[in-house]
Amino acid sequence: MDLGLGGKKIIVTGGASHIGRAIVLSFAREGAALAILDRDREQAERTAKAAREAGAPGVCVIEADLSEKESAAAACAEAMARLGGIDGLVTNVGWNRPDFFLGLEPAEWQRIIDLNLTSVIACAHAVLPEMVRAGQGAIVSIASTAAHGEPRQSVYAAAKAGVVALIRTIAAEYGRSGIRANCVAPGLTLPEDDAAALGRQSMWHDREKIMNAAQTEYVVKATPLRRLSRPQDIANAVVFLASDRAARQITGELITISGGFGTH
Ligand SMILES: NC(=O)c1ccc[n+]([C@@H]2O[C@H](COP(=O)([O-])OP(=O)(O)OC[C@H]3O[C@@H](n4cnc5c(N)ncnc54)[C@H](O)[C@@H]3O)[C@@H](O)[C@H]2O)c1
């Protein structure tokens, strides 16, 4: 199916590495123009080059620390100016250091909330006026299966649950203005064996801290399909939801991409 994304103007936060990179490259193959917002300029430029080669008519990189709400808003404003408008916002940036609740320091609570929730609020707030003015636009936010509550994910889980509530509320408030807003919740999605896909600021750079082999095996065993999600599985759902042609009547939804993990 032609998703009708050719020439559409899409912002992807945290688009340099791993899941964000797969999302950027999937939009590029559909012929969309892209702005990659990421604090890792070097990796973002590498991904931008790959996106141009994959078919994106234009790709710009905007370096920003999206955990600061002013920087996030300014980066979105610059992206809209450079793209010449906006059709889609994908809020993908996120970070966690899994640990039991009492193992997290206050500075980490704040970092997790700032990057996973406040950045989404700031980016959505920055792009919505232009979307409302244009009478169209799609927002897709990357949540997590953790949003339902999962061990070692407490503050991150709370932030992701906040993202789901925010996006459902935006869908309810701005549907009448032609805006659709949805979430995609990945289950565990390990990086593939592809050095080009991970920048130095990806949380997976220190993989043992995020998910060791025993923990990974536990997740696979608890997954009905007995396999983990791949970045492309997540990207497929994102481009589907961003497409007004494919997902015209879908808003306020959460699609879980986890092989069934966390859904039973
Ligand atoms: N990978 C998983 O298993 C998994 C599971 C569920 C949900 N998620 C969610 O999917 C999204 C992507 O995760 P990922 O595994 O690809 O992450 P990742 O760490 O591999 O990549 C994150 C990207 O964001 C950038 N970034 C990090 N901090 C930033 C900041 N302060 N400002 C700007 N850019 C910043 C990094 O440079 C990198 O390009 C996140 O929202 C994450 O919570 C991931």
Question: What does this entry look like structurally?
Answer:
The protein has 264 residues and is of the alpha/beta class. It has a single domain, classed as 3-Layer(aba) Sandwich (Rossmann fold), CATH 3.40.50. Helices cover 44% and strands 14% of the residues. The chain has eight helices and seven strands; from the N terminus they run βαβαβαβαβαβαααβ. The protein has helices at 18-29, 41-54, 69-83, 106-134, 154-174, 207-210, 213-221, 231-242, and strands at residues 9-13, 33-38, 59-63, 88-91, 137-142, 179-186, 254-257. A seven-stranded parallel beta sheet has the order 3-2-1-4-5-6-7, sandwiched between helices. The longest helix is centred in the middle third of the chain and has 29 residues, at 106-134. It binds nicotinamide-adenine-dinucleotide. Nicotinamide-adenine-dinucleotide binds at residues 14, 16-20, 38-40, 43, 64-67, 92-95, 115, 142, 144, 186, 188-189, 199, 201-204.
Q: How would you concisely characterize the structure shown here?
A:
This protein has 264 residues and is an alpha/beta fold.
At the first level of CATH, what is the class? Alpha Beta
Largest sheet: 7 strands, parallel
Mean pLDDT: 96
Which hetero ligands occur in this complex?
nicotinamide-adenine-dinucleotide
CATH topology: Rossmann fold
Number of domains: 1
Instruction: List how many beta strands DSSP finds.
Output: 7
Which homologous superfamily in CATH is the superfamily? NAD(P)-binding Rossmann-like Domain
| 3D shape | globular
Rg on CA atoms, Å:
17 Å
Please work out how many helical segments DSSP would assign.
Answer: 8
CATH architecture label: 3-Layer(aba) Sandwich
Helix content: 40-55%
Order of helices and strands: EHEHEHEHEHEHHHE
Q: Approximately how much beta-strand content do the residues carry?
A: 5-15%
Distance between the termini: 31 Å
